[in-house]
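INFO batch 0412 | record 1 of 1 | parsing
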Amino acid sequence: MSQFFYVHPENPQKRLIQQACEIIKQGGVVVYPTDSGYAIGCQVGNKSALERICRIRQLELDHDFTLVCSELSELSTYARVENQTFRMLKNSVPGPYTFILKATREAPKLLQNKKKKTIGLRVPDNKITLDLLACLAEPIMSSTLILPGKEFAEADPEEIRDALEHQVDLIIHGGNLSETPTSVIDMSEDEVVVLREGNGDISAFV
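INFO prediction complete | emitting tokens
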């Protein structure tokens, strides 16, 4: 049975954020709110937790997962960012975007696209997520919570509880959210390509 925290979306309770942080550090799988529906995540590099996420979402282990970061400066640790790319990113984060970039050596191998050596990175505009990242002092290995057979991100935490309370360690209730996932922008090559149009305005990338 998972824990279920009601966290205030604008003023998250520090005690609950710290408890959530400990669950992640102990190898837990956590459902948490973002600016584009709910996401499911775990500690960076925790293969067993990642395998649990794959089972829940019915994904292959080579699925392109995302590193959710607290600020733009973290991206350069895990991805190669040219000056022009950095300027484009700076105008779009925090926000509902996932960026595909060339991975650095520091990027977790589990998260890299094995053929292209790319990684997905994002900085969400959500107070609960940002407080959680600050507490962890590292990114979260993450995927949009799209359940098998569904097209959109899960948006209602009570429905998530009904579906997953025996499969995850924690569900953070941060309100009912948009079910539209992030816009996915591939910036790994010379040409910028919009792979998915979602919540984020893509006009700057086309």
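INFO post-check: Residues 9 and 174 are 5 Å apart (CA to CA).
INFO record closed
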